Amino acid sequence: MLATRRFLPAALRLRRAAWQRPAIRSLATLAEESSFKIPLIDFSKFLEAGSKAEKRNTADEIVSGFRNVGFIYLDKHGIPESVVQKAFAQSAEFFRLPAEVKSKLEWEDPRSNRGYVKIGRERVTQSADANEIAQLRAKAPDFKESMEIGRDWDKTWKNRWPEEKLVPQFKPTMLSFFQTCHELHVLVMRAIALGLDLEENFFDDQINEQFHNLRLLSYPSIRTNLLRQEGQARAGAHSDYGTLTLLFQDSVGGLEVQNPHTKTFQPGTPIPGTIVVNAGDLLARWSNDILRSTLHRVVAPPVEKLSETEGITPARQSIAFFCNPNGGAKISCLPTCLGVNGENKYPPVTTEDYIVGRLSVTYT
């Protein structure tokens, strides 16, 4: 075999090498794609741990997931399924209200980040250029509507609630769900602290003001060919702004997560009973990019066929709880995350300045 290869004509050897090189790259790409999987974490092992060492085992799994992928599936997290389903039912009831009723509650100010956002008003993207985002919005707006809810005791910014008679129990249901999500956020941040070699309660007094955002999301059904136009998606590729996002999905699907190595998007397929949790920009900054804020998007899931050439993408619901540090918290590199020579990739920034800045260019 070696002798045969030695006496191959030069041109043939070059062609043969050219055939082989793409195959090698392809195998490497396949290996990177197969290793890029959102890990499933049994959080009950942390909640029921009898020792710090047992907690640390789960904490390491969580930090590893955020380090390698930026996303985890959180299983056995302690939030009853009945609580989640009640929130979904109330959300669906709200979005069934007439457009003229919802428009009276419209989102008005990035400092508030509260109220109803109609289809096409938001265009999530990684760009920070207002003109570029305006062009993207005009060409391919995000095909979704949302309702944004913040902490209800804020003296400056008020939530915008529908009348009780229109959606009975909507306000108490959402406020209770907000609190439930905050409490889970605290526990996950304690796990992250342990996984980063910090004291377990390191983040407690930096997230206790509940400077969070509960987002109810409705993706109406749409003809699939409209979602396949250039740049169009139900929600464009973006990273989230805060520390963590708790995402509650229905069974329709559509979430995709970008593999940072291959730049391909892979499905974040719904797993019943789990919460998809991803790290956001401020957690990435806090950790000096040890924890990854990964690009993701929402695209068309499998379609219902209308004809040989056309289909319809079914309606989808989700609820996202965007977890943030306190508004005035100074986000600078954690002491255990500095580079080998003390490098810090990012200048300090406050939570409010960063998030308001990002929201200001995302909405019209």
UniProtKB/TrEMBL annotation:
Residues 210-325 form the Fe2OG dioxygenase domain. Keywords: Iron, Metal-binding, Oxidoreductase. It comes from the Eukaryota. It holds the Pfam family DIOX_N. Belongs to the iron/ascorbate-dependent oxidoreductase family. This is Fe2OG dioxygenase domain-containing protein. It comes from Somion occarium.
